[in-house]
Amino acid sequence: MEYTIKELEKWNKNIEEVAIKFGLDYYNQEFEIIGYKDMIGYEAYVGMPSRYPHWSFGKAYERNLMLYKFNLTGLPYEMVINSNPCLAYLMKENTLLLQILTMAHVYGHNDFFKNNRLFKEGTSADYTLEMFKRHGDLIRSYINDPSIGYESVEKILNAAHAIKLQISRNVGIKRLSEEDIKREILEEYKKKSERRSDIEPIQKTDPPDVNKIPLQPEEDIMYFISKYGELTEWERNILDIVREETLYFIPQIETKIMNEGWASYWHYNILKEINLPSSLYLEFIKRHNDVIAPVRGGLNPYFLGFKMFEDIEKRYGRDKIFEVRSMERDESFIRRYLTQDLCSELNLFEYMKRGNFYIIEEVSDEEGWENIRNTLCNSCGMGMVPYIQVVDMSKKDKTLTLQHVYDGRELNLEYAQATVKHIVDLWGHTVILNTKLDGKETKIICNENKNLSRA
Amino acid sequence: MAIFKDYNPIDHDRSLEDRRRHKQLVEKSIKENLGEILSHESIIGESKDKKFKIPIRGLKEYQFIYGKNTPGIGSGDGSEKRGDRIGSDRQQGKGNTGAGNEEGEDIYETEITMEDVLEYLLNDLELPNLDKKKFSEILSDKSKKKLGYQRHSIRPRLAKKRTVIEKIKRKQGRKRALKEFGLSEENNRFPFKEDDLRYFKVKKKPRRESNAVILCIMDTSGSMDSTKKYLARSFFFVLANFIRMKYVNVEIVFISHTTTAKEVNENEFFHKVESGGTYISSGYLKALEIINERYNPSYWNIYAFHASDGENWNEDNERCIKAANELCQLCNMFGYVEILPSYNTISIKYRLIEGVTDKRFIAVTIREKEELWKALKDMLKKEIREG
């Protein structure tokens, strides 16, 4: 290291003073200096100091290490965890300026974690580290239990990981009780029967089946299986653990562009204010431009988020961006604040794979930009996860029917089939997935012996 | 005020356990795919150091993901127009901070060599280590080694050079003696004496027998289509490599037969298509002929493998079984592999199993491509046990 902890503390003091002056509101901050190998390790475990064991983390580690060794990717300059106090790792190999920039960047994230609605309602920062630790300990105890063992635990974890994103996507919405849903359904039916106008012919609609399971299509497949599946206690606990941890990560998935944009906006504005000597100032400008550089053909969330916050500030003033960071998530953020001017300034375009080629479908002109904005809204955050609901559970043989809510995007068949198999691992009975393939309604069926068929 | 924790140089690699498990699963996946790799034609005829790329399956983390008709958004330089192609290999968007950790196609591919494949094959056979030793213990006492000289022995072992040396030694000694006594040298004839004669001392020594010949016999009649041939090819290839591991000197003989058999070279063996009927016995008789001519069973370890689709003309069956029995007498192992037999005929395999009781005979069947691996295993297990 070409600098001492003392120096970092000195710069941190400057940063915090400026951050508070700007009105950032953050949890207490802890920084830990780590080497690049540890950084790769933390990256694989999404930053958590302790997690349950699973080969997928080992795979992530190997992949990151390989990419790093082949120079295909840089390492993150930092890693920051949504917890209170906020935990951040700084990489030892960074230059002094990078550490300063990174620290400022971390305060941006920290403020976002503390104030964004999704994080406030969807996660409990005070107990984050304890939660992951507790989960890790419990799963390890199952592994060490001779009547369960590593392979059985792994099988359940594999299956749980396969559907971990098939959970409630809306943060902070209360689950209605069965009784409430039943009442709603009956009222709906009553209204329908009463409101018939005189000119319409009388149609008899069957009364709704209030004993159906689920009463309404259920998007939280994890919850549904945990509740109605024939799982043993430890299996159910593992499923619930994976679900709970995914819920913790959903706000991050849902605010990637905003969160990075916000942090980039603040490291930029803070570093301009802390009287960097000119030797460091040049490096600051260069590094900052690297971070927010557009990627040709792809979309750098730092770039889009940073530009949007700058644009919003220009149009509505600084108070507005604080409000936006509290209220929005990526989808609403983009839907509300991405303008045609910005679209064309950033040269956004929409592409699609046709045959072996990626073809540009839309560019940011008068008629194209709204399509681009809508596509972006639909594909950011949880929008990249296919929306699949449980629509029926047969009372006779427990066959589970899933419905892919088709929005023009088809499922990858290979992955869908393998995932349905994983669901059978948990469910133990036939699982049917209704979807559309090549424009045709298709059923992917997997019976309890894990034989696949299509109809 | 933030708290700083300084760098702790103690390496605490907590990913070790998960990486070990991941590696284990990768290897498992390779093994599971070996059958497919082996039945792939491209591996044939490659040297054992050649590396094969195998995509590793089973390590994907499956989830519901979108497929082909999913639009994406990118940023460009403003020159893009509708309908432009932006390449067939889209670059993944990643910020310089490396924030991208999006689930992409898993790019795992690993390279292994033929040697690795054979190693996996051996491991897969699940043999106790004891059995493996047998590889190198094939000894014969036929070989003799000269070890020094002796004064008395039989004429054929006369060591001429040594005898001459003995004579020269005697002559030189005489010269010196004459000098000492001041006598001049007479240029007389100086004959060999009984004392000069030396004979080789010969000791019997067990030697590792390291010659092997593989006789690959294949039915090339019309019914053997190219798929069957590819399978046969893979089969012979792996067996040949396996036997190569065991012996220093391995020769391979290719015999193709229809109603008549002939010895061919490797290229002809795998590519030439012939038409006509099938007398399997012709192949066996040719093999017997070649063994008698060139490969004395007391010096050679003989392996014969025959691949066919199980069809044989009825009148030949008896001759065929007789010849097979004779082959068994001469060979370390005689293997018969039936490839993709049609179901409506009584295949020769059953007749062979009935007619050939010698334990050096083994018959296996490959009903579909995937069974190649199992068939090989069955055959090699046998070879190693008996070997």
Q: Which helices and strands occur, and which strands form pairs?
A:
The complex is a heterodimer of chains A (455) and B (387).
Chain A: H1 5-22, E1 29-34, H2 36-44, H3 55-69, E2 78-81, E3 86-91, H4 96-115, H5 117-122, H6 128-144, H7 150-162, H8 178-194, H9 221-228, H10 233-254, H11 256-271, H12 278-291, H13 301-316, H14 318-327, H15 330-337, H16 340-345, E4 348-354, E5 357-363, H17 369-379, E6 388-393, E7 400-404, H18 413-427, E8 431-437, E9 440-446, E10 452-454
Parallel strand pairs in A: 1-3, 7-8
Antiparallel strand pairs in A: 2-3, 4-5, 6-7, 8-9, 9-10
Chain B: E1 3-5, H1 16-38, E2 51-55, E3 72-75, E4 109-113, H2 114-124, H3 129-133, E5 139-140, E6 144-150, H4 160-180, E7 199-204, E8 207-208, E9 211-219, H5 226-246, E10 249-257, E11 261-264, H6 266-271, H7 280-294, E12 301-308, H8 317-330, E13 333-339, H9 348-355, E14 361-366, H10 372-386
Parallel strand pairs in B: 9-10, 9-12, 12-13, 13-14
Antiparallel strand pairs in B: 2-4, 5-8, 6-7, 10-11
Question: What does this entry show, briefly?
Answer:
The complex is a heterodimer of chains A (455) and B (387). Chain A has helices at residues 5-22, 36-44, 55-69, 96-115, 117-122, 128-144, 150-162, 178-194, 221-228, 233-254, 256-271, 278-291, 301-316, 318-327, 330-337, 340-345, 369-379, 413-427; strands at 29-34, 78-81, 86-91, 348-354, 357-363, 388-393, 400-404, 431-437, 440-446, 452-454. Chain A has 455 residues and is α+β, with helices and mostly antiparallel strands.
3D architecture notes:
The complex is a heterodimer of chains A (455) and B (387). Chain A is an alpha+beta fold. Among the domains of chain A are: 5-124 and 254-337, no CATH class; 343-380, no CATH class; 388-454, no CATH class. In chain A, 53% of the residues lie in helices and 13% in strands. Chain A has 18 helices and ten strands. Chain A has a five-stranded mixed sheet, covered by helices on one side. In chain A, strands 1-3-2 form a three-stranded mixed sheet. A two-stranded antiparallel sheet of chain A has the order 4-5. In chain A, β8 (431-437) and β9 form a beta hairpin. Chain A is globular and about 80 Å long. The termini of chain A are far apart. Chain B folds into three domains: 20-61 and 107-124; 144-204, no CATH class; 208-386, Rossmann fold (3-Layer(aba) Sandwich), CATH 3.40.50.410. Chain B contains ten helices and 14 strands. In chain B, the strands form four sheets. In chain B, strands 11-10-9-12-13-14 form a six-stranded mixed sheet, sandwiched between helices. In chain B, strands 2-4 form a two-stranded antiparallel sheet. In chain B, strands 5-8 form a two-stranded antiparallel ribbon. Chain B is flat and about 115 Å long. Chain B starts with a strand and ends with a helix. The model of chain B is unreliable at 89-107 and 127-138 (pLDDT under 50).
